[in-house]
Backbone:
């Protein structure tokens, strides 16, 4: 039988909530009984996506809402990070390594690359003026799959 | 008197931030010990059992020593 | 200016999510850096309310949704635990120490008393067949904030 679980968390687009988002996802993912390293991969990816929502989606505006959803099914976790912010004009370009629209802020332009590296799958959807939705999935190999 | 107050403040009223860092340290040692013992990386549950806390608590304590990954570090500095 | 922050989390009414809910609220509240004791009071109260939602509100049905909201304002935290379950027929009676509708399950009947003891304020609202909403507030005396 596949154990299924679901959670959704919403919070204000304040940078103090980046750490909160990491803990929420890590605490939820801990039900899959990963190693510390697997947990840390997920945190890194979530951190990048949430930071993007706050600084690009809402441009440091503190009263936007960031939504993070997570679904566990078997040994697989799917994480969605969503904002209702300004959206991405060119997703393909945005996902290129080192591309950043804010070079002045010393952004590395490596956020999406990091998400791709640490997760197994990454899908980015965005609409100008409507917001952005980043879906990431990862399979935990440490999980002893019980029938 | 000031010294006694400071002592009490330090010892009796422990702030969460400090306690989380202590737990994170214990997690690190438990992880190392278990890795030796098992010959592989321990899971969160195995560490939780060793320390007698919830695995969710481990996720929270680890955040107190959170550092972006190596790759991220190299890029940002 | 008083620092304000807000979060809302929804999750399935599974008992494995009790410790998840506790840590989510703790992670959010820990932004204020309270004492261990203050944080532990909150975790205990949240635990009781979430357990009630799962075992009484949804009667162990795994696909109900439990909602936990938290608002921080200055050194005060307000926590709402809500379910869309069966509701409480007589709130006054339900809140009496040692009253339980499930004595067969070895319930202590002390959940609401615990919430009242560990928090500064407790308000329970409920509608039969619609659900229950428990609102609790606490002031962290250890946390100094500037107005
Ligand atoms: N949530 C978002 N809302 C709007 N724009 C975004 C969002 N996420 C990413 N972007 C755009 O994609 C670019 C690349 O993102 P990323 O790889 O994380 O690099 P960086 O954040 O360092 O700029 C950003 O510079 C920004 O223009
Ligand atoms: N969320 C809820 N939905 C429906 N009934 C509830 C809920 N919370 C509490 N109750 C009712 O109130 C009673 C007292 O609750 P509590 O003080 O926590 O004691 P216990 O959970 O041990 O029974 C419960 O036995 C139940 O009948
Ligand atoms: Mg980025
Ligand atoms: Mg109870």
Residues:
């Amino acid at each position: 039988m596949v154990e299924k679980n679901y959670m959704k968390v919403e919070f204000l687009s304040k940078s103090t909530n980046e750490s909160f988002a990491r803990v929420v996802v890590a605490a939820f993912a801990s039900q899959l009984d990963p190693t510390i390293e697997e947990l840390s991969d997920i945190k890194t990816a979530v951190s990048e996506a949430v930071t993007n929502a706050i600084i690009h989606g809402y441009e440091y505006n503190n009263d936007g809402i960031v939504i993070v959803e997570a679904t566990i099914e078997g040994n697989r976790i799917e994480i969605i990070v969503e904002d209702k912010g300004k959206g991405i004009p060119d997703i393909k370009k945005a996902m290129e390594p080192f591309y950043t629209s804010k070079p002045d802020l010393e952004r590395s332009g490596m956020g999406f690359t990091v998400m791709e590296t640490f997760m197994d799958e990454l899908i980015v959807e965005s609409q100008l003026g409507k917001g952005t939705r980043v879906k990431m999935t990862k399979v935990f190999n440490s999980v002893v799959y019980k029938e | 008197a000031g010294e006694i107050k400071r002592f009490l403040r330090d010892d009796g009223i422990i702030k969460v931030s400090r306690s989380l860092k202590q737990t994170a340290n214990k997690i690190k040692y438990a992880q190392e010990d278990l890795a030796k013992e098992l010959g592989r990386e321990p899971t969160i549950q195995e560490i939780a059992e060793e320390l007698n806390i919830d695995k969710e608590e481990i996720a929270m304590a680890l955040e107190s020593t959170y550092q972006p990954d190596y790759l991220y570090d190299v890029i940002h500095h």
